[in-house]
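Researcher: I'd like a candidate sequence for this fold, 353 residues long. If you have to choose between options at a position, lean toward the conservative one.
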């Protein structure tokens, strides 16, 4: 199960030259600065644009091999963009059924009912799409894309136009998309929180080139990865909700390195979560801090220090997990921080998403 995508394309002022070897399952996040070529890569994979030279193989099927190019209409892909692009004159059900009807019955791997149920569209089925919220419209667009029995989903910033609440509503549907339909999902996004929640594998594009391509957890934990050069750099830690303390409205999450108290989390006990802990929300101490309002104090070992503008980014091993702290250069000197030094990492309960 793999995707091999190799494209070269030149436009005025922009050259794309990528050779990607990707897993053929799970969510593959594609990030990078504006104009890096992310949408162009999706369009080339969909066959909506032609490369000067290219090769594309998706889980054993050759879609582009030198001069042999499968036309866009023959490629089994489902695409969803920032704007839902629904057919305005059709109902929700008719929108979802649109592509499904065009698939030969013998080639259908998804029933219309499955596509509707997977995105909880049952109660909206007869609704005119003009009367849907932004989040509902994106659910219809996702269901319509899945209904064509694709072998690959291409999502180009599908949540970018939604506010934070709507985004939180849609994220679980996206997480289930790759899992329940056993579909590889290429997911272009500028939002680190979305990638932290969804991505199994990550690609960073810059100036039309691949700067990083690796399993998501590996890149999230690497202080040198392009994902950690931003001001809002954060650690991503897989964890499981252990219990809720109703009196203080806190949840405890356990991870491979200890436990953390969190505020405002809605997941039930037992749920698998990915904690995103911003480096600016982690402070360091050399001794055991006492009489502090900070609920989470974790013994840690410094594994790397990197200059981060006016700050220093400190990578910490906490059991098998990596945490980041952003501290001043003065703190680095005063605490005599260096590789291998033992510290206590302090994380506020409210500082996780
Ligand atoms: N149809 C087009 N014709 C000519 N140039 C284009 C076309 N579409 C995009 N470009 C250019 O190609 C480059 C890559 O664009 P692309 O849209 O793939 O970047 P992106 O990484 O998706 O950016 P963003 O994050 O802003 O959406 C940019 O320089 C862009 O201006």
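Model: Candidate sequence:
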């Amino acid at each position: 199960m793999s995707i091999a995508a190799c494209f070269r394309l030149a436009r005025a002022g922009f050259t794309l030259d990528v050779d990607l070897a990707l897993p053929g399952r799970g969510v593959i996040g594609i990030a990078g600065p504006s104009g890096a070529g992310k949408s162009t890569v999706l369009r080339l994979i969909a066959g909506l644009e032609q490369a000067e030279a290219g090769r594309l193989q998706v889980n054993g099927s050759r879609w582009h091999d030198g001069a042999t190019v499968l036309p866009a209409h023959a490629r089994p892909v489902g695409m969803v963009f920032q704007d839902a692009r629904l057919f305005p004159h059709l109902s929700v059900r008719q929108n979802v059924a649109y592509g499904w009807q065009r698939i030969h019955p013998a080639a259908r791997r998804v029933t219309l009912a499955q596509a509707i149920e997977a995105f909880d569209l049952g109660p909206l089925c007869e609704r005119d799409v003009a009367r849907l919220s932004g989040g509902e419209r994106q659910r219809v667009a996702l269901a319509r894309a899945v209904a064509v029995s694709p072998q690959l989903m291409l999502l180009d910033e599908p949540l970018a136009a939604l506010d934070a609440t709507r985004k939180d509503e849609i994220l679980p549907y996206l997480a289930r998309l790759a899992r329940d339909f056993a579909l590889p999902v290429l997911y272009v996004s500028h939002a680190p929180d979305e990638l932290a929640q969804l991505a199994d594998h990550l690609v960073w594009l810059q100036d039309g080139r691949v700067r990083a391509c690796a399993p998501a957890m590996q890149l999230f934990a690497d202080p040198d990865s392009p994902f950690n050069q931003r001001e809002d750099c954060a650690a991503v830690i897989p964890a499981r909700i252990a219990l809720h303390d109703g009196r203080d409205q806190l949840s405890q999450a356990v991870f491979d390195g200890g436990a953390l108290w969190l505020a405002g989390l809605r997941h039930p006990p037992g749920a698998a979560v990915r904690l995103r802990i911003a480096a600016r929300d982690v402070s360091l101490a050399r001794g055991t801090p006492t009489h502090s309002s900070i609920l989470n104090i974790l013994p840690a070992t410094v594994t790397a220090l990197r200059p981060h503008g006016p700050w220093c980014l400190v990578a910490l091993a906490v059991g098998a997990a990596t945490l980041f702290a952003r501290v001043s250069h003065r703190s680095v000197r005063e605490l005599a921080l260096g590789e291998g030094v033992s510290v206590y990492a302090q994380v506020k309960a409210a500082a996780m998403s």
